[in-house]
Design goal:
single chain; about 230 residues; mainly beta; Porin; elongated; signal; Outer membrane protein beta-barrel domain-containing protein
Length: about 230
């Protein structure tokens, strides 16, 4: 719990600093509206053994602060637990968690801290609220005493924490109208949340999965300003 609290505090402090910098920045008299609309494509790898891909749109009412939404999905490429007994086990195709999501977010950028004729480099932050699909379904493989499959069943559920808070902090390089961003991503997403409350024939899935932890990772975004 101490580690989790420290993580929240660090991210809150970083965002507070970003907000202060953005609030103190001026538009330098620029009236060009090309920066007001931004389309982005973001990829992310996390400590929960997930990859994430999303498409986003942000509108900037002011030069260095935008509001928008992302539509995407995440999926595990490696799993950490297999609910099973002597009579059944979860099917291979059901072991890696995945979900589509919608994520409203605030996109903050500092003015360029380093600038050349072709590129401006600065800092960015993006706090968001991830809303996953509040449903999960698992295929159960029945087996005999020798461990051979004898049939299949299915169990589903909609109980669990389907939302998560996230923040990305990184560096951007603007080659107008294209901007590249990369950095650190943090989230309190529990990838097993929709499965922990499931049970089959009286056996709960929860104890088979790893302990819930906040996740960290790295992201890369390519954005185009309109």
């Amino acid at each position: 719990m101490v580690k989790h609290i420290n993580g929240y505090r660090i991210m809150a402090l970083a965002l507070a600093l970003m907000v202060a910098v953005v609030a103190g920045a001026s538009d330098n008299g620029e009236d060009d509206a090309a920066w007001r609309h931004c389309l982005g494509l973001t990829g992310e790898l996390t400590s929960s053994d997930t990859w994430q891909l999303e498409a986003s749109y942000h509108w900037f009412p002011v030069r260095y602060a935008g509001i928008g939404v992302s539509l995407g999905m995440w999926e595990q490429y490696s799993y950490g637990g297999v609910p099973a007994t002597n009579e059944w086990r979860t099917d291979d195709d059901s072991r890696c968690m995945m979900s589509a999501f919608l994520m409203p977010s605030l996109l903050l950028r500092t003015p360029a801290l380093i600038r050349t004729e072709s590129v401006g480099i600065g800092l960015m932050a993006e706090p968001g609220f991830m809303m996953n699909v509040p449903y999960s379904s698992v295929t159960i493989e029945m087996k005999d005493k020798r461990g051979l499959p004898t049939g299949y069943d299915r169990v589903s559920g909609n109980r669990g924490r389907w939302y998560a808070f996230s923040v990305r902090i990184g560096v951007y390089a603007a080659f107008d109208p294209v901007t590249l961003s990369l950095g650190y991503a943090w989230s309190d997403l529990d990838v097993y949340a929709m499965r922990r409350g499931m049970a089959y024939k009286g056996t709960s899935f929860g104890p088979f999965y790893p302990e819930r932890k906040n996740q960290g990772g790295a992201f890369l975004r390519v954005a185009y300003s309109l």
